[in-house]
Design goal:
About 25% of the residues lie in helices and about 20% in strands. The protein is an alpha/beta fold. The two termini are about 25 Å apart.
């Protein structure tokens, strides 16, 4: 899967997603984009958008975007808080489809 990490996620999280083409939003030159613009850009290049923004799916009409979203639900967005979710994230990446929004975590 091709997966962009939202800019609020630590870039070191890329290492934990081995086997996937993972980039960060800043690497793509998309830092500070509004969520709708960001999803539109990501949909043209990626399969699944990874974020901790729990409100994203409520603020956007996800049917407009040809991309899936995985929302990481953790105590915070530090690497130590997110790493325990990686096994479940990898399972979800194997089955998620465009248009779906799945939450992983608490």
């Amino acid at each position: 899967m091709r997966v962009p990490l939202d800019e609020c996620l630590p870039r070191k999280l890329k290492r934990d997603l081995a086997g996937h083409d993972t980039r960060t939003v800043p690497e793509m030159g998309w830092a500070s984009k509004e969520n709708g613009d960001l999803l539109g850009l990501a949909a043209g290049h990626f399969d699944v958008f990874l974020t901790v923004d729990r409100n994203l799916s409520y603020q956007q009409d996800m049917g407009r975007f040809n991309i899936a979203v995985v929302v990481l639900v953790a105590r915070g967005n530090r690497l130590a808080d997110l790493r325990p979710l990686i096994p479940q994230v990898l399972e979800v990446l194997a089955v998620i489809r465009a248009g779906q929004v799945l939450r992983v975590g608490f």
